[in-house]
Amino acid sequence: MDLETVLGPNGEQIVICVTVKLNTLNNGVITKLFMNDLIDPVNGGNNMWKSVIDFINNLIKPNDDVKSKKPFKYYIYTHNLGSFDGYFIYKGLAKLYSDNPYSIGCIIDNHNKFININILFKKHVLIFLDSLRLFPVKLNDLAEQFNTPGKLSEYNQDFNNLELLRSNSKLLEQFSDYALQDVISLFDIMTKAQTIYIELYNIDITTVVSLPSLSLKIFRLNFKTIPIPILKGIEDEFIRNAYFGGHTDISEAYSEDLHYYDIISLYPNAMLNDLPGKFIKDHKNMKAIKLENFFGFVKVIVETLPNLKVPLLPYRDYETGRVSYPIGKWTGTYFSQELLAVLPHGYKITLIEGREYERVNGIFTDYVNNFFSKKANSTGSERFIAKLHLNTLYGVFGRRQDNIETLNINNGDLPKYISTRLIKGFIEINENTTTLLMYTHIHSEILSKLKNLLSTKSLSYESTVKSNVAIAAAITSYARIHMIPYLLLGVLYTDTYSIFTKYPLPDHLLGKELGMMKDELNGLTIKQACFIDIKKYGYWFIDKDGNRIEKSVIAGVKRDSISFDEITRIFNGEVITKDIPNRFNKSVKDLNIIIKDTTVSIDNNSYKTRKDNIYLPLYVNTIDNKMIVFINRFINKIINKIKKIKEYFNIS
């Protein structure tokens, strides 16, 4: 399914048409477009959505006479259900079935993105899924990878003008042809994808909702030979403090004649190391334990040399959430092997408490080798799929053990539910119906008892998360360990697996194998580079044809859209204002999306202090100032909670 929107009277986007392409048992493949009322699309939406659902239901012809305890499931994909289509689909269906709100449900993640939407009928359920969660690339790029036709014509800005669509029949015809292109392309892509995954891995892609969960299922059914335990909540909480991302840092501001390298498959390479297996023992006192004899996760006191030039150990500021690489003294939780790796480089480590695990080798070896080989030796969709799964499996083990349960209720029941649920937020469907977004990971036993006591007719849609953050934390630690030798050579800027350095790496470090470095510029050098902050830099070089190529990375701005002249002006203190066209502003509360032009200001502020051309490491001391830090964290948590409540309820 696909839908097209136009600008509404209040600046919000309104669905003007829905396109469907489906495969039926008796009628073959059918494609159809459903147009909204062009005169009054706001109030005409109900009729459009009713036509869509009636059309689908009539074609699939579910047999109500068949006796089955579970309803038959029919799957409908849209590309970007999570952040766009889902807003309109859920809003339209919830209004259509407002007389029976319990027949509509959805799963929403913690970023307020739709994972799925469900309509429950007597003997079947329609389940809307997001193909973008499975294949996170633009639809046209996805069509190219699967060798299917993509967009055949360009978008016309007049399509967003409802008045023009009403008055210009030729434009409306062009719009209708354009609207059908995406749904035809997506149907062909997903049909091919389903065939590939069944043939290669014996997996039906409708049984998963995301690329990480698809990777996990491939691993579990085809490669898993060693048991992986699921951590309990208290274990997860302890080890999650040791779960950091890749090493990202900045050390020098401006330079010339630089080399730019990437590590090949950094995380897959890290997955080949020894990983935590079965839990052995909880150590509350580690005074008698040597770090070299321990494998697991440790809470420690870290102290660095005062003049340490290349900090290597990450630190998370719990007030701001920022991860940095500081000097000083602090308490933190880390993977034992990372602590061993930094010890020779200016760190003193005092062990406090830890969780010890069995050391297991080869958990992911077959999986990594299989997909790395396919990535290196195949083309087209097979290479695309191999690349996706090679880089996403490790992350699934780091998923948080929390879910969002959604429940449609009549507004008259709202006080009862608010008093007995842990509410994350609301979706206002209409004057009669509200969708509750509820936490289920906190006090789950209490919530379960309350549900039984209330005995409502509600349908519960929950996402069961199974993770082992010890695996993910160990893998990311190994990735940072892998970076240490390169960082010690002298790096101006690093971002997980990329480095910018003044000196060319020796040939023995370059190659095409896992964990080897790749020269991103193939022997060319960067003429000038400015590093202003993390995710805020630019550079230029001369390509082999003599052309000047400029590159820039600014968070929140389209890549390479800032010229190097602008980068240098920002670097020298000027604030640059950049126009950002068609920025999406979304409201989960009322499921409205407003697309409008906006501007952003870019300055030279950095989270690190710069002295001359060098960025000084941050200094932290949470040991000597422990009580002050604790009080500040507590106060900031309260302030942030109040801010969120005020923002949500529009309290000035």
Descriptive notes:
The longest helix has 33 residues. With 652 residues, the chain is α+β, with helices and mostly antiparallel strands. It has 17 helices and 29 strands. The chain folds into four domains: 208 residues, Nucleotidyltransferase, domain 5 (2-Layer Sandwich), CATH 3.30.420; 277 residues, no CATH class; 51 residues, no CATH class; 31 residues. It is globular and about 70 Å long. The strands form eight sheets. Strands 8, 9, 19, 20, 21, 22, 23 and 24 form an eight-stranded antiparallel beta sheet that branches. Strands 10-15-11-14-29 form a five-stranded mixed beta sheet. Strand 19 and strand 20 form a beta hairpin. About 4% of the residues have low confidence. Helices cover 33% and strands 30% of the residues.
Summarize the structure.
With 652 residues, the chain is an alpha+beta fold. Helix content is 33%, strand content 30%. The chain contains 17 helices and 29 strands.
What radius of gyration results from the CA coordinates? 27 Å
Report helical residue fraction.
25-40%
How many domains? The number is 4
Ranges where pLDDT stays below 50 over 5 or more residues in a row are 441-465
**Overall pLDDT:** 87
**Beta-strand percent range:** 25-35%
What is the straight-line distance between the termini?
41 Å
- Tell me, briefly, the overall form: globular
Q: Could you give the count of β-strands?
A: 29
Secondary structure class reads: alpha+beta
The biggest sheet, with number of strands, parallel, antiparallel or mixed sense and barrel status, is:
8 strands, antiparallel
Total number of helical segments?
17
What kind of assembly state do the chains in view correspond to?
single chain
